[in-house]
Sequence to fold (169 residues):
Amino acid sequence: MGKRTRIINDPSDLVPLLRTFGSDTHKKVFDHLMVDWYTEEELKEMLEFDAGESLIILKKSGLVESKWRMPEPGKTPTKEYHSSYSKIQVNFQCSVEDLSDLLMITFSCDDDIKNMMEQIETEVVNGNQSMTGLSRVVGTSPLYLRGIARRSNNLLVKGQRIEFIGALE
Fold:
């Protein structure tokens, strides 16, 4: 594995990162992927639980890369996964209020932020994808919106826009 460093310039990038390492399950998956390339099925056999959700969160965090494993002749290829980074550098400044909002988003149970997530998803599906427009309609800061979008499996932050992507594959 390479010694690549993930540079975090946006405070909302902490949401999926802290969710990943705040869970024993996701951490175990990441630890295995630091060692070698594994398919989802191999992870399931080694860890004795389904690693699908962990892989989704790790991909959304940008901590995992994938490639197709060439199978034996006559069999179908499968995706295998490996960790992308071995180090993280955090380079941002934000208010304590913004940081507390992001920590709340990260560690809240799904039911606590479900309504906000659904409201944002509905707005995005209806065409309101700009951070400024969404911020006005929902009544929150753009940083809060990015934090919610990074927590959702159905939303993707792209610059100053949020896109609806459905569940990541």
